[in-house]
Amino acid sequence: xxxxxxxxxxxxxxxxxxxxxxxxxxxxxxxxxxxxxxxxxxxxxxxxxxxxxxxxxxxxxxxxxxxxxxxxxxxxxxxxxxxxxxxxxxxxxxxxxxxxxxxxxxxxxxxxxxxxxxxxxxxxxxxxxxxxxxxxxxxxxxxxxxxxxxxxxxxxxxxxxx
Length: 162
Hints:
Residues 141-162 are annotated as: Disordered. This protein is 12% helix and 48% strand. It is built from two helices and twelve strands, in the order ααββββββββββββ. The chain is mostly beta strands. It has helices at 4-17, 22-26; strands spanning 33-41, 45-49, 52-55, 57-63, 71-79, 85-88, 94-96, 101-106, 118-129, 133-139, 148-152, 154-159. It has one domain (28-159): Hypothetical Protein Tm1070, Chain: A (Sandwich). It is elongated.
């Protein structure tokens, strides 16, 4: 027979296991919005020892997940770890048709962003669209085993229909 304290511990652990963060739980992934600003962290190097790091290439991938609506990328900027704008990555707005994607590469030898660089993108839709997936894919690009990982964008501003 289990002791009462053991049962309470198991119950508390079970509740923590099935707890969903509020921002994910309350987010409606089917809501159509008129536009958003999305922050995407990127990394130009990772440290494996205090004086040793591996350079990384960063690819920003933006996926229009809406099967019906076109979205327009108004702005895609690359900032360094201090938040300073390094460059604008679009010369003009770019339309993404339903399910179309766009990628932008920061080459492996470009360390101008520092360890904690980031992308900031602004998109819009005249009729409303599902929020795109924006993520950075970092890879060592050395051809052998090396660090490779992704970071997902976070919506920091949203324009909804009033």
